[in-house]
Amino acid sequence: MAWSPVRAATAPQAPEVDTRGLPALAPGWAERNPLREVPLAQAIGRQAYHQACARCHGVEADGSRAPAPDLRRIGKACQRLQDLSWRERCLSDSDHFFVQSVRFGKKKFDIEHMPAWDGVLSPQVVWSIRSFIENAPKP
Ligand code: HEC
Fold first, then answer.
1. How many degrees, rounded to 5, is the angle at CA 113 between CA 11 and CA 1?
2. From the CB of 61, is ligand 1 less than 6 Å away?
3. Does ligand 1 have an atom closer than 6 angstroms to the CB of 130?
4. Whole-model pTM?
């Protein structure tokens, strides 16, 4: 079925995932993904992604479900940067873009293309999803 903004308008549902094993995070939104290297976060992120994001962004974050963008591209170019401090800066920028997109959704000309997840997904779940996507095989 083709994607339509009408489907997008349904209220976002919190995925059912057990985050108890994850390290506690400082309150608020970190500047960069604090769970990037945590394998458990990648596993939890995969479950949450499948419940909340896959129907629009593709089943294994593989970009198979256009027109929602392939999320593996976000921050991909950072890996090519040789200079470590530039790479870190690049990853922080991508993390920021990712978090803002997820929290506040995407609206164009008053049509909601992606719902806002602020208050629905905790920072632990959002960062876990980001960790899963970053470790998905690259396009
Ligand atoms: C109802 C469909 C839908 C759902 C569900 C959805 N998205 Fe999206 N998302 C979109 C569309 C469509 C866009 C592109 C919107 C645009 O560019 O204006 C988008 C854009 C994004 C972007 C920005 C990507 C870019 O390259 O510009 C991110 C990040 C994102 N989504 C993450 C997520 C995550 C994480 C989830 C699950 C928690 C999710 N989305 C759930 C439809 C959806």
1. 85
2. no
3. no
4. 0.92
